[in-house]
Amino acid sequence: GNSHSIGLKRHQKIIKGNVNVPATCVLEKTSLVVTQSNGTKYWKVKTIEVRDNETGNVLNTETELTIRDQQLQNWLSSYGVNLYYPPLTEEQQKKKKAVNKPLVAIEQLFHALPRLQNCQGIESMTQLCKYVEEEKEKNLKKGLALMEKGLITFDCCWEAFAIGKQVAVELPSSNGTIVGTKILSLNYSRGIVPFWQMSGKVIKSDGKEFYEHILNFSIGYFTSPTPFENLNVQPLTNPVRIRLEERGTKFREIALSHKYMQYEGFFQKASGFGVSKFKADGRVMVDVTTVSY
Q1: CA distance 153 to 141
Q2: Do 219 and 232 touch, CB atoms closer than 8 A?
């Protein structure tokens, strides 16, 4: 069942921030380097290269926008865009600066674009949507090229994990159990680090009946192109689908009421001296009703 893990530990250090860094930020194996800065009177664009510390190779390019215009800030917030306000530096605090201009990662705007295009008659929003639409096409091409190699970058997740896509999710809270679901919602959020927050439905049982349960899961920020198989959420492949369908068939057979069944195999018992294994052939009772309460 759960011996196969779809999520492997990443070997790169997670930093406090996405591309939301004011200058070069050194990581364990990669660096985020601001390479250029430009934009319009409404926003400022920063292009950040993710570089390999050993070779100097550019592994990925990310983009963030500083929103200069107050009206544009208000409109973006009203359409559900999560704006991030960088904390003030000590120098800024000494100069009594009130607050920094908010930042937004461009991949959040790719995801929000259909909503933003409903905003009519606002020049700043019209210009922004045109810019985001052009950049979105470039991002889609990058994402397709990466997917052909089995890779993904954080800024391409908005398309790879779009609403309606079927995915396999590893649940750390359930000893790494893998479940299959269809994505019902996708949102860009930012705590200490950015992450894509998703939800989907799974079928559960209380022993008396089956019911649908909303499952929340997420993908945290990562800097460089990463194999899908290293993520805790990944597109549902045929081999995984077959395995989950087999498990689902068995679940449907035993998930209601209680049943006596025959078991042949071993049990494991953990103690302070380690794990001991002993033969445990015999009858067992599967009682989902009692366990669920």
Answers
A1: 13
A2: yes
Q: What pLDDT is attached to residue 8? A: 40
- The residues, any chain, with a CB within 8 Å of residue 143's CB and separated by 6 or more, are 152, 153, 156, 159, 160
Checking DSSP bridges between strand 233-235 and strand 274-279, what pairing results, if any?
unpaired
The DSSP output letter for 119 is -
Would you give the DSSP letter of residue 228?
G
Spatial separation of the C-alpha atoms in residues 284 and 256, rounded to whole Å: 15
**Beta-carbon count within 10 A of 135 CB:** 16
Q: What percent of the chain shows pLDDT beyond 70? A: 79
> 267: left (phi > 0), else alpha (psi -120 to 50), else beta?
beta
Higher pLDDT, 191 or 43: 43
**Residue 68: other Cβ atoms inside 10 A:** 16
Cα angle: 140, vertex 145, 180; to 5 degrees: 75
Which of 42-51, 55-64, 140-149, 197-206 has the highest mean predicted lDDT (pLDDT)? 140-149
CA distance 161 to 165: 6
Q: Pull the structure tokens for residue 280.
A: 């445990």
The answer to whether 165 touches 186, Cβ cutoff 8 Å, is no
E-assigned strand segments in 40-125: 43-52, 58-67, 103-105
CA dihedral 230, 227, 111, 44 (to 10 degrees): 110
Q: Angle, nearest 10°, between helix axes 70-78 and 123-147? A: 60
Q: Which pLDDT tens digit goes with each residue over 162-185?
A: 999 999 998 877 677 889 999 999
Helices 123-147 and 106-116: angle between axes, nearest 10 degrees: 120
Give the mean pLDDT of 32-36. Answer: 77
